[in-house]
Design a protein that fits this description.
The chain is α/β, with parallel strands linked by helices. It contains 17 helices and nine strands. The chain has a five-stranded parallel beta sheet with strand order 4-3-2-1-8. A hairpin with a 5-residue loop joins strand 6 and strand 7. The radius of gyration is 23 Å and the shape is globular.
C-alpha cells in the first residue's frame, strides 16, 4: 500500500425542509449551502480546472441529498441569498467607517458570486456539483444511513431499512452506487460490518479509540441483538484512552468480513478541530459567534478565544488570508512528517486519515474552504480516495473493533441517557407496530399509508434529535420534531390499518409535508 493521505468530509443535516426557519429549521440548509457547500464546490471545481490531481472523499447523507435536490429548497435558497446581499447593501450604505464599508462590500461581492455559481455554474443542483467531481475521479461520494439513524441502538429490521434506503437514495440522486459509508456518529457495534456487507458496502471510517489493536485474528463476534433492549439502560462500552499501540496508519478488515475500516488520526485531525489547538481559533480568523445587531453579518475576528464578544477587534480579510496560507503549509508539513515517522517505525508505507464535518469549512470556520484548497494543492501527490486506495492495495490484516462512537467517553451516552430514553422507548414501540403490519397485503390508500408510516419512523430515528436534546443546542426544537414524527407515524399506521377513500386528503397532506424517499424505494424494503 503506498503512502497516502485521506481527507474525508462528512456532510449532514437533519430533515428540516418546511420545519421552521431561524433560529432552528430550514434555514440551517440555506446557511450550509451558502457558507459551506457552494464555497467547497467552487474551490474543488477550480482545482480540477487547473489540473490539480487531488483526491477527496465526501460523505453526503441521504437526508441532506433529499433536501439539496428539492425544488422548494432551491427556490427558498435563492430568496435567502438575495436577502443576505440586501443586508450587505444596507450595511455598506450606512457604514460609519471605511473598514466597515470594505467588509460589507466584501460580503456583497462574495454572496453575488456564490449566487451566480449556484444558478449558472452548478445549475441550482449542489448534489450534481459533487457528482460531477465523482465522475472525473476527484471525489468519492460516501452514502450513509437513510436519516442518519444511530445504528447500534436500532432493531435489526430498522438497520436494514436505514442502509437499503440510504444507498438507494444516493444512487437515485447522484447516480452513483456508493461502496463506502459514513456510519452516523461513527457509531459501531460488533456485527455491524455484516449488515454493511449484506448491502454491498465495503468500507467505513472509525474513531481511533475503537481500535482494539493491529493483526487481531479473525474471530466470531457476539450476535447483534439491540432488539432485546426493553427499556433498561444498555451497558455502555468503556474504551478508555486510545491505546498507544493501536495502528491508525493503515486500513483493516473488520472481524471476519470483507469490509474495511480506516481510523481517524487523532493528532493530525486535531490540528483542525481541537478547541484548544485547532487552526479555526486563531485570532486573525472571523469570529462566528458575534453578529451585527441589525444585519446579522459578521464583522469581527476571533482576536483571542478568551476575549469577550463585545471586545472583539474588526475582521481583516488580508490578515486572515495570510494566516490561511501559513496554516495550510503547516498542516501539509505535519501530514508528510507523520507519514515519514510512521514509515520509519514500521518499515512499511503509511496512510494518514483525517475526517471532518463539512460544515466546519466555511460555515463555522469562514476561511476553511480556502485552507482546504491550499492543502489539497500541496498534498495532491499523496491524496487518495478511500475506495481508490482499497482498490490499489486491498488490506489483508484483520482487527476487532470495540463498541462505541465518537461521542463523550467514546460510548453511546451522548445519544442514550436519562434525557433521551423516552425517545428510544418510543422508537422500539414504533418499530414493533410497523413490523406487525408488514406483509399483511395492504393495497391502494392503505399501502401508501404504510409507506408514509415507514417514512415517519425513519425520520424519527434521526440521531440528530437525541444529540440536540443532550447537548442543549436546540433541545426543545428537537424534542418537538421527534414528537411530530411520532404522531404522524401513529396516524399513518392507523390509515394503513383501516383507512378509506375519505382519508385521501389527509394522507396527501402527510405525503406532501414529509416527501422523502419515493414509494418505489420503500416498497423494495421488506
Amino acid at each position: 500500500m503506498p503512502d497516502a493521505f485521506l481527507l474525508v468530509l462528512h456532510s449532514h443535516l437533519p430533515y428540516v425542509r418546511g420545519a421552521g426557519r431561524w433560529p432552528h429549521g430550514e434555514e440551517w440548509v440555506h446557511e450550509a449551502i451558502l457558507g459551506t457547500y457552494l464555497p467547497l464546490l467552487v474551490a474543488l471545481h477550480d482545482l480540477r480546472e487547473e489540473g490539480v490531481p487531488y483526491r477527496l472523499t465526501v460523505g453526503l447523507t441521504p437526508t441532506l441529498l433529499e433536501q439539496l435536490a428539492h425544488r422548494e429548497i432551491k427556490e427558498r435558497f435563492v430568496e435567502y441569498v438575495d436577502d443576505q446581499i440586501a443586508r450587505a447593501d444596507r450595511d455598506r450604505a450606512d457604514a460609519s467607517t471605511s473598514r466597515r464599508r470594505e467588509l460589507s462590500e466584501f460580503y456583497r461581492r462574495s454572496y453575488r458570486a456564490l449566487r451566480e455559481a449556484f444558478l449558472l455554474r452548478f445549475g441550482s443542483d449542489v448534489a450534481q456539483g459533487f457528482a460531477d467531481l465523482a465522475r472525473t475521479g476527484h471525489v468519492e461520494i460516501l452514502t450513509s444511513a437513510a436519516t442518519h439513524g444511530y445504528l447500534p441502538l436500532l432493531d435489526e429490521a430498522s438497520v436494514h431499512t436505514q442502509l437499503a434506503i440510504g444507498r438507494a437514495t444516493t444512487r437515485r440522486i447522484v447516480g452513483i452506487d456508493a461502496a463506502g459509508i459514513w456510519l452516523p456518529e461513527c457509531a459501531y457495534r460488533p456485527g455491524l460490518e455484516r449488515f454493511l456487507e449484506a448491502h454491498g458496502l465495503d468500507h467505513f471510517f472509525t474513531d481511533a479509540p475503537l481500535l482494539a489493536g493491529p493483526n487481531v485474528a479473525s474471530r466470531d463476534v457476539r450476535a447483534w441483538d439491540p432488539s432485546s433492549w426493553s427499556g433498561a439502560a444498555l451497558p455502555m462500552p468503556k474504551t478508555g484512552r486510545w491505546p498507544a499501540w493501536a495502528d491508525v496508519h493503515r486500513p483493516y478488515l473488520v472481524g471476519g468480513s470483507g469490509v474495511a475500516t480506516f481510523a481517524r488520526h487523532p493528532e493530525v485531525s486535531g490540528q483542525v478541530w481541537s478547541a484548544q489547538l485547532g487552526y479555526p481559533g486563531d485570532g486573525a480568523y472571523r469570529e462566528f459567534h458575534r453578529k451585527d445587531d441589525r444585519s446579522g453579518l459578521r464583522y469581527w475576528r476571533v482576536t483571542d478565544t478568551q476575549t469577550d464578544l463585545g471586545a472583539k477587534d474588526e475582521y481583516d480579510v488580508a490578515a486572515a488570508a495570510a494566516r490561511v496560507r501559513e496554516h495550510a503549509q503547516h498542516f501539509a508539513a505535519r501530514v508528510r512528517d507523520e507519514i515519514s515517522a510512521a514509515r520509519r517505525r514500521s518499515g512499511a508505507d503509511a496512510v494518514v486519515t483525517t475526517t471532518f464535518d463539512s460544515e466546519l469549512f466555511g460555515h463555522w470556520w469562514f476561511e476553511g474552504p480556502d485552507w482546504l484548497a491550499l492543502v489539497l494543492r500541496d498534498l495532491a501527490d499523496l491524496t487518495r480516495t478511500a475506495a481508490g486506495l482499497l482498490h490499489e492495495s486491498p488490506p489483508r490484516a484483520r482487527i476487532a473493533l470495540r463498541e462505541g462512537s465518537w461521542g463523550k467517553e467514546s460510548d453511546h451516552s451522548t445519544w442514550l441517557n436519562p434525557q433521551t430514553e423516552w425517545m428510544w422507548h418510543a422508537l422500539a414501540r414504533m418499530a414493533r407496530e410497523l413490523a406487525a403490519l408488514a406483509g399483511t397485503g395492504t393495497t391502494g390508500l392503505r399501502a401508501r399509508a404504510f409507506s408514509q408510516a415507514r417514512r415517519e419512523l425513519l425520520l424519527a430515528q434521526s440521531s440528530d434529535w437525541p444529540f440536540l436534546v443532550t447537548t442543549g443546542q436546540a433541545a426543545q426544537y428537537a424534542a418537538e420534531r421527534f414528537r411530530i414524527h411520532e404522531r404522524r407515524f401513529e396516524r399513518a399506521l392507523a390509515l394503513a390499518r383501516a383507512g378509506t377513500d375519505d382519508d385521501e386528503a389527509e394522507l396527501r397532506t402527510m405525503e406532501r409535508v414529509d416527501d422523502v424517499f419515493p414509494d418505489a424505494a420503500l416498497a423494495g424494503v421488506a
